[in-house]
Description:
Blueprint: E1 26-32, E2 35-44, H1 49-59, E3 67-78, H2 80-92, E4 97-100, H3 104-112, H4 115-118, E5 120-122
Parallel strand pairs: 2-3, 3-4, 4-5
Antiparallel strand pairs: 1-2
Amino acid sequence: MQDVAFWKVVSTGSAENNIGSDHRFTIHAELTDGVLDLRLTGRLDSLTAPQLLAEYEAQNASGTVRKVQIDCHALDYISSAGLRVLLILKKGCKEGVSLTGMNDLVSDILNQTGFCELFSCKL
């Protein structure tokens, strides 16, 4: 055990889903005639992806969501967990999912993973 390094992880702040005050994740949702409009702010990652899934499930409780439109203007980053939730949304929507207003980083991630071919993506 002499050559083994150990890490101790401790919390240094609140347990909110943020990485500093500039990276809070928020979802603004509006359902109109079966079209769910989502505006995402912050980072969509393993900590925040469950929030997006929960919001979709709450909005689609009666099964009326047929299309999801996601405004990504204020989305800073998307991880594999966020991509996984996008796939779940796509599977649940008859008319698919569209993404608009992506910054260069989010756009690069979606292009490199092939997600722009699966979704309607507009810069």
